[in-house]
Write a structure and sequence with these properties.
461 residues; elongated; 2 domains; 9-stranded mixed sheet; Aminopeptidase; alpha/beta; Leucine Aminopeptidase, subunit E, domain 1; 6-stranded mixed sheet
Length: 461
């Protein structure tokens, strides 16, 4: 899926004959019901109190309506956005369109399937067009992220992912660079290569530079974990977890998707994506617990668990973003720990932050996106849990608090930059959708919030 500039996913309504009309209303009890109409049927969607209405509620309601009509065998539908636009403005129409498109998303398939989805048309005022175009680009970016995470590992090696991301980025004028193992070795990226050397498919460091802001302004770095196959290494994952090991690159998909949306919408900000992409497999000379390795920063790391590989590659990627891309701020995002799922389940991601202004901007970003995050503490006692007697830092905690200490491990490489760490292990994938605009599999978690965060720092005309 190319995240095209100015392209539209949903056709606008221009009097086409349709079977169904979806009408949105406010002021009553939330829900939906089928009503007879003059030339077709009506699905009436009640959104509740207008004073409390949010774009996220509209997105969910539109998605539920889309799935209902698909299940009823509808062939053609017009979505009447008038009441929502009156309540929320153009962003209301954008939420309707996005909710429907995400609800009807279908993963790439390698078998013959028949698409039985209805054709949807959106009836919205002309004043909504700019908001709809922005939402269309963002929705395409979310769907691309879902495609990448859903892709089988044998069809998305680090080189495959690099090629696909480069193609998408170059179509939007984004500067691209892909470093191979030899180039990474010359930079001293030992933590990155220690993980990647366990596989026949070579590691790749993917760098995408969007220069939409002022020339010379330091970029925001978006660093995404890109483990395309994670067996756990010699600390092998249990068989029950193996089916999901292809999706350990959801952080990479998120940062790529966010950057593509920024470029497609000409957001005036400088942002650079850095993705360390590897496979974590088992080989005769793979790293093992007890090893001590180096890193691009010069810090040494004691290996306590080979299934704590994501933080190793992110450490070098963060250092690269700071030292080579001269990032002013850093966000890293990863499916990093199972502990975050135990804390927050599949609806909320955890985050750490070392800067209050940056944190406030991030909180405003996820308020706009509709995603849910919860800030975790970073007390000095937690930092002591990753101290090592034989190296500068350990890649596992000595005393629990796995999600916090994993984030603090990465934070020890940020060199005083404003930094946010996002652990999306629970929200990147759902076997049972938690929101109506989700489908089974990848969710595209992080794309919209990262986009909104970068947009916050856009320069004004």
């Amino acid at each position: 899926m190319i995240v095209q500039e100015g392209s539209l996913m949903m056709e606008r309504y221009q009097g086409q004959k349709v079977q169904w009309t979806v009408g949105f209303t406010t002021g009553g009890k939330e829900g939906q019901k089928v009503q007879p109409g003059g030339e077709g049927c009506i699905l009436a969607v009640e959104l509740g109190e207008v004073e409390k209405l949010t774009a996220e509620q509209v997105r969910v309601a539109a998605a539920k309506a889309a799935k209902t009509l698909r299940d009823l065998g509808a062939e053609s539908v017009v979505l009447d956005a008038a009441a929502v636009v009156e309540a929320l403005g153009p962003q209301g129409a954008a939420a309707i369109a996005q909710g429907v498109e995400l609800a009807l998303y279908r993963t790439e398939s390698w078998k013959d399937t028949e698409n039985t989805d209805p054709v949807f048309y959106l009836d919205a005022p002309a004043e909504c067009e700019d908001a709809l175009k922005e939402a269309d680009a963002l929705t395409r970016a979310i769907c691309l992220a879902r495609d990448l995470v859903n892709c089988p590992a044998n069809k998305l090696t680090p080189s495959d992912m690099a090629a696909r991301m480069v193609k998408e980025a170059q179509a939007l004028g984004i500067e691209t660079e892909v470093l191979d193992e030899e180039q990474a070795r010359a930079l001293g990226m030992d933590a990155f290569l220690t993980v990647g050397s366990s596989a026949n498919h070579p590691a790749r460091l993917i760098v995408l530079r969007y220069k939409g802001g002022k020339e010379g302004d330091a970029p925001i770095a978006l660093v995404g974990k890109g483990v395309t196959c994670d067996t756990g290494g010699y600390c092998l994952k249990p068989a029950s977890s193996m089916k999901g090991i292809k999706g350990d690159m959801a952080g990479a998909a998120a940062v790529c998707g966010a950057l593509l949306a920024l470029a497609a919408n000409h957001v005036k900000v400088n942002a650079t994506v850095v993705i360390p992409s590897v496979e974590n497999r088992i080989a005769p000379d793979s790293y093992i617990p007890g090893d001590v390795i180096s890193s691009m920063s010069g810090k040494t790391i004691e290996i306590g668990n080979t299934d704590a590989e994501g933080r190793l590659i992110l450490a070098d990627a963060v250092t690269y973003a700071i030292q080579k891309e001269h990032a002013a701020k850093v966000v890293d995002i990863a499916t990093l720990t199972g502990a975050v799922v135990s804390m927050f389940g599949f609806t909320t991601a955890g985050f750490l932050c070392n800067d209050e202004d940056f944190c406030a901007a991030f909180q405003a970003a996820y308020d706009r996106s509709g995603e849910q995050y919860w800030r975790l503490p970073a007390f000095p006692e937690y930092r002591k849990m990753i101290e090592s007697p034989i190296a500068d830092v350990s890649n596992v905690s000595s005393d629990g608090c796995g999600t916090i200490t994993a984030g603090l491990f990465i934070g020890s490489f940020v060199e005083e930059r404003p930094w946010i760490h996002l652990d999306i292990a629970g929200t990147a994938w759902v076997d049972s959708p938690r929101r109506d605009y989700q489908t089974v599999g990848a969710t595209g978690a992080g794309v919209t919030t990262l986009y909104e965060l970068c947009k916050h720092y856009a320069v004004e005309d």
